[in-house]
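Aim 2, interim progress. The first record below pairs a target sequence with its structure tokens.
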Amino acid sequence: MPGDARAHNRALVLSSLFHAGPLSRAELARATGLTRVTVSDLVAELTSEDLVQDTGGRTETRVGKPGALIDINSDGHMIAALDLSDTSTVRGALMTLRGKVVTRREATTNGATGAAVAEIAIDVARGLIAESREAKLLGVGIASPGVLTPAGDVVYAKDYGWTDFPLAALAGAELTQHTYAANDANVRALAEFTFAGASAEGLMEVSLTDGLGAGILLDGLLLLGPSNAAGEIGHIPAMVGGDPCTCGRRGCLETVLNKRVLEAAAARGEDPALGREEALERVGTAAAAVLAPIVSAFNLSDLVFADPRGLVTDDFVAAIRAGLEERLLPQTMDNLDVRVSELGADAGLLGAGALVLAERLGLT
């Protein structure tokens, strides 16, 4: 369909500028494979919508006049982002298209569940939208725990008591804005690619929040699965027996690798005699046993740990890597980067922003 082709071409131009800009029209044509006439037409359209702008710079060419440089108009629109992954606090931010946070708001949940949590989140979003003032709002993004459909319905989120809860639709109707919601680990993976330069060819981002989940990008696409539950690695068995898990079983990965275990390891760091390194080694060995087959099956190039609380240390990453090296081929390890996300506590917020960019502008 002609409309689909034009939307695809718009996304090509915007993605090229977002990840490689500023570029001249000629450079955009080469990068996208589109004709110069098509690129010029799209640039004019996107400029009129305040999505791109002439930077004022010029490229140097051998023949003819220099070409004007075009770039994303970062401040032309704002995004309202919400992070619900910490069940005690709803965090929100108003940000530019480049992910620069302009203002923040947050509200405590006080143990609220069900529709009450959504109302708290909507109220935070209202405050952010009010602060956007005259700026155009591209949309609202929500990073939520649980299993979510592509439409933003929460199939199940235990901590909030949500089952088949229409989170995105409810918030969108209340806010009268384009609103999107997705699993928090999935959007953190989007943030790693969109704002931190990670490869989208083979990336797994492991989120160490109140629970444990992962977002996986393969060949530029977010892996969801037929039940939208891809990346739910927290309940894969990690050890025989082990501690009881919230799912009713014992020894799940979530009982081995979680904020409580990492907090305990950090406390041991205050007294080396308590065996901090040994504790991290046990966690790393158990976690690597679960992560190794995933890394190998998908031939991942990036294994990133999102750690909003700053508990993950270099020792932890070293323990994970050592456990993987015991289980994987050297060729796999040679191409694998194991690291902690540089996005810190804002990974969920930036992920919610990246979700809006993907849904509204097709940025991939």
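The second target in this work package is listed in the same format:
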Amino acid sequence: MKKLLFSLSFIIAFAAAAVSQNGYEITVNFKNNKDTTMYLVKYTWDQQYIVDTCKKVKSGLVVFKGKKPLDKGVYTLVSQEKSIYFDFFVNETQKFGINTDMTDIVNTLKSVGSKENENFFSYIKYITNKNQEFGKIRDKSKGMSKADSINFITTKYKELNDGVKKFDADFMNKVKGTFVYDVLNLKTEKDAVNVPKASNGRPDSVYQYYYYKSHYFDGIDFKDDRIIRTPFFNKRIKKYYEGVIVQHPDTVIAEIDKVLARCNKDSLIYNSLVVYFTYKYEQSKIMGFDKVFVHMADKYITNGASKKLGYSPETIQKIKERVDILRGLLLEAKVSELYMIDTTYAKQVKKMGFDTCKSSKSVTDLYYKNLEKLTPMFKTLYQVKAKYTVLVFWASDCGHCQTELPKLQEGLKELNGKIDYKVYAVQTKDDYEEWRKFIIDKKIGFINVFDPIHLNNLKERFDIYSTPVIYVLDKDKRIKGKRLSAEQTAGMLKMLEGVQ
């Protein structure tokens, strides 16, 4: 039995409309079972939800009964210890029985009044027994020589595998057009047959890949919400987007749009996928994949999002604000100018009194009052002339920064004379003395600047929620790399320049 984890949170606020008013009644006669409580549990995406509880199980007799029909899909019977016993179908027929015996649950499963479950149970009986045969083959090879053992196992595996493939194909042909077919099709791999040979005489792997990719979703009806209430749909989606297609944001965006175009807008599947992809790529740690999040928000959420997505107006506004920040920080985006003060002028600026200002108006007034003096003190980002600019945001009181800044400087030394680069290091705090001491003590030879006038709104413009944050810009100040570690920065410059 598999352990089941129950979640109290829902992916989306969506409920399927009932198509029948006759209710449901599912009776399970579970011989030799000692439970006194059992749960009827529904699959939805990658979660399982309790939809009914039988608290009076006696002699293995379990009855789930309700006045409203159940959502159509795959359900599972769960023990009082929260372990799964077996799966079954709830579809058009919502009044049926199931008989089984605790001593051999799978092989004693019988359906009463549900043809779909009768077919499904016959399938899992066959597959379960063949899996057990696979497990016994290795035991039978014990005592043989290594060569004989390999030959025996290989031959037996092939015999069993060929038999399973034939059974699977025959079974799928038998149940084609039914919901059982639709569910099992979700876990069926569409591998190429009669693969042509490549120039090296081996099966053409390129042909195999493109066949597999182009047929991956064959037979899957994205307009049928029942398939999301199965244990296989979420796995098939995740595998495709994480392991089948090329991991590039533009490719992912195109493939997401293709799948969502196959769904009915505002359906359970459509809304679940929108929420899943939005969250997945907003949380992605892979550089550049925030572009997918921006696309999802722009196309499916902030532009007249459906209320059925479950997002409140306040949440949508927050998503929009987040996207507006990230949009200007996507790879290849050109960053805006930074007006910073060089360390050389820090004491002079401090005497002007910006640190004592109590409001934005007082800062503005003081700024224009001292503009003539301030102008020559600025060391702006666009004044940095180099093929590459390493833009670093750090704080002198940040322990991680104190480790990373010297490490960054040391790592970049090997590029001196090989790659035209400069480091523009922005102190995000106002503590001049601590900052100055660290630079001198650690001999940080970067272009060291800070913003005592608070002109630049650094945290929002550059998404700085922790430090250090490192960007690599090209000569036009376009982002080529971002959120890099000290170790990764030199490697990024080498890659961009083609230096080994």
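The chain has three domains: 2-112, 205-327, 341-497. This observation will shape the mutagenesis plan for the next reporting period.
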